Recover the amino acids of this structure.
């Protein structure tokens, strides 16, 4: 059963103040951009709030106006990373549907290029993502995006084959999401060549999984 964040945890991790003016939005963007740069530079080490403030050119007090702690900053980054996937998948639904297996293979390749870039450019955030997944109180943060991604994968498959039943499309969407995510996490912990090989393997698995359901020549 999916859980919702308990009130205490949500309050502790939510941004303190939502930016309502353009100036405030720019300040938040500076904070998040600084945190992202530092996580990329420092790898597995979590940047301190002081380091984030210094990189953003702000006082620590200014950072605390918007975020209660560094964990809230990293979680907001994780949310932004997770929210980028629906747009990437939705883009593939907007193009003309494939008429044969080769065209579908090309669509899969385009999707992999776009989603792979999101993983590679944000590899330093993966410990945060894994922590969210493994924490029962934080998992709902990822669940809200997982449901969107699964639905979009299902819609993408039904874009290729409108006759595909909803239950089958959703089941395949779950497998596509879970297999792709777990394998990429493994790949990111290896060298780039291994990551690329794992990407190719996942693409092959995807094609083997879904092609029989698409009625393509």
């Amino acid at each position: 059963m999916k859980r919702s964040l308990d009130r205490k945890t949500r309050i502790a991790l939510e941004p303190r103040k939502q930016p309502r003016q353009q100036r405030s939005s720019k300040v938040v963007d500076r904070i998040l951009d600084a945190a992202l740069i530092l996580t990329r530079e420092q790898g597995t080490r979590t940047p301190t709030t002081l380091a984030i403030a210094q990189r953003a050119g702000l006082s620590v007090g200014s950072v605390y106006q918007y975020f209660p702690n560094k964990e809230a900053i990293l979680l907001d980054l994780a949310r932004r990373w997770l929210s980028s996937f629906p747009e990437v998948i939705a883009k593939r639904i907007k193009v003309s549907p494939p008429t044969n297996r080769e065209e579908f293979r090309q669509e899969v390749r385009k999707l992999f290029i776009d989603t792979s870039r999101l993983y590679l450019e944000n590899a330093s955030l993966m410990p945060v993502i894994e922590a969210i997944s493994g924490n029962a109180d934080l998992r709902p943060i990822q669940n809200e995006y997982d449901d969107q991604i699964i639905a979009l994968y299902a819609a993408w498959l039904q874009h290729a084959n409108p006759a595909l039943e909803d239950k089958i499309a959703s089941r395949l969407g779950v497998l596509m999401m879970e297999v792709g995510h777990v394998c990429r996490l493994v790949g990111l912990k290896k060298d780039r060549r291994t990551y690329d090989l794992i990407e190719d393997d996942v693409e092959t698995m995807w094609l083997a999984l879904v092609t029989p359901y698409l009625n393509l020549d």
